[in-house]
Every structure is written in C-alpha cells, then in structure tokens.
Amino acid sequence: MDVFHLIIDTSMLRRLHFQHPDFNRLLQQSQMGKLKIYIPRIVLEEERTAQLEKHLLMIEEIRTRYAKLQRGMQGLLVQGLAEAHIELWSALDVEQNSRATFSHFVALNKIEVIEISKDQAANAWDRYFKVEPPFNPKEEREARRKDIPDSWILEAGIEVKARNGQHCALVGDNKLTNAFEKEGLRVYQDVQTLLDDIEQATAIAPIQRPIVEEAPVPLDQLRSLEFKDLDVIILGLIETLDIPHKEALFSALEAAGFKRDIAEHEARTLVLSGRLKDADTHFIPTSRALARQAAATDTVTNVLLRIMG
C-alpha cells in the first residue's frame, strides 16, 4: 500500500486549522497509516503567529470594552459596587504558550515539520532571482517579493519527493499550485477529493468466495493407480528373490512395468512405516512371516510372471 505524503501550504492551513473537522478527517487517515502529513516550518509559524495576533487583538478589545463599562452612564450603573477585576493573559505568556501547544499538537499527531535548511534557502532565493515558479515574470520585482515564502514552501515539499509513496499537496494558491504540479506533485484544493483518492488507492479488494468445483477423483483414490498394491509387491518380491540387492529389486520392478521413482518412493514409505529395514544395499523385511504372506498373493505371482516373461 502506497502512503500518501501530503504537504499543506499556508492558505490551506489557515482555512483548515487544527480544530477544523476536515483536519480531523486527515488525522484519522494518518492514524490508519494511509497518510503522512508534512507542514513546512514557515507554514506552521505563519499559522501560529496569525492566531496569536488574533488572540491578542481580542484581549485588547475586551480591555477596551471593560474600560467603557466604567465610564459615563454605564459607569453610573455600577457606581458604589466593589470594583470588578478581570485578569487576562499577558502577551508574553500567550506567545510562549503558543509555541509549546503547537509543538505538542504536531508531535502528538505525528505531523512532520519540515525545518528550514540551507539548501532550501539557497534554492528558494535562486528561484526568486531566476523568476521561476511560483514567481510570475509578468509582475514587477517588488510585487514578486510577496511570493518568497511560497518559494520556501515549495522547496520543503520537493524534499518529500524522495520518500516512497504518492506525493501530493493541499494548496489554496494558484501560483503555488502550478509550481507544485510542475515538480510532479498532485495538488488538491479540497479535502474530500483527497480522501476519495486515498480510499480508492488503499482499498482492500473484497475476499472472493472460493469457486465450488467437483472433486476430480473420489477420496479413496487419492493415490494414483500406479501405487496400487505396490507395497505388497515390493515386500513379496524381496521375499521371493531372497532379499536382492536394491538395484536388482528396482530393475526387476522396471522390467514388470513399474516406474522406478514410484517404486523407490514406496520402498522408502515401507521403511518409514516399519515394514522394511534399510541396510544400505538391501531392504530387509522386519517380519519374514508378513513378507511370506505377501509373496504368496496372486498379485506378486503375476508380477513374477511379467518379470520372467
């Protein structure tokens, strides 16, 4: 089963944040071993600092609204009451804690953060100066600078191509989409299409019911006719021929029309069953009475006639 290696860019992570239901669906695929999620460090920091900025703005808004409650007619309503205290987090505490919580989240969910490397930096700047994707040569140089972060994200994604499996990206930016596709990665702009492809690629074929067919032979005929009475014949010939040399025994059986390999196999079976003893050059019956009984059968007599004839 090929694992899907998925790169997530800034615009898509902004849309599908860590608490989004679709992100949880991706994590479920990751837990089943079908998907490996990668987030470039620059993308993770973009998301963390954007959420941090939003959080600090909300804190400032709360403080501003609280101050208004203590002025004018709103302040008159609470005049004479004990002063209310609202204790909110400091910007430093929130900033430090955001680093810890983001690190814990990616580690807990086995998301691989692609750190910024010297090679990424060199390649990203090389793309900028050569005006290669994701940079648009039709834009002014100053306007192209806004795409420098995307160039770093692209280089981080290219590193993942060395890993076995299918390589893809969740991207919400057209220029970065084209750049990833040019590098051979499949680009998705919605989670459902990605999940459908994962399901199709990793689905286990349903177990086929075995085809019922008629047995080619009855159970009492599992051994072919070539083995019929061969054990009795070998035991009887050894007695009749007065414990012959192995070569003489098998040559006689071949002369009677028996296949040598089948005769040798049956002789070894008689040894394993304790009816014969293997004395290197000869087979010796462990019971002469049983051997004489075999020699007296019509089956052995008929074989002797074929040998002599």
UniProtKB/TrEMBL annotation:
Q: Boundaries of each DUF4935 domain copy?
A: 6-175
One Pfam family name is PIN_12
Q: What name does this protein carry?
A: DUF4935 domain-containing protein
Q: Which organism is it from?
A: Pseudomonas graminis
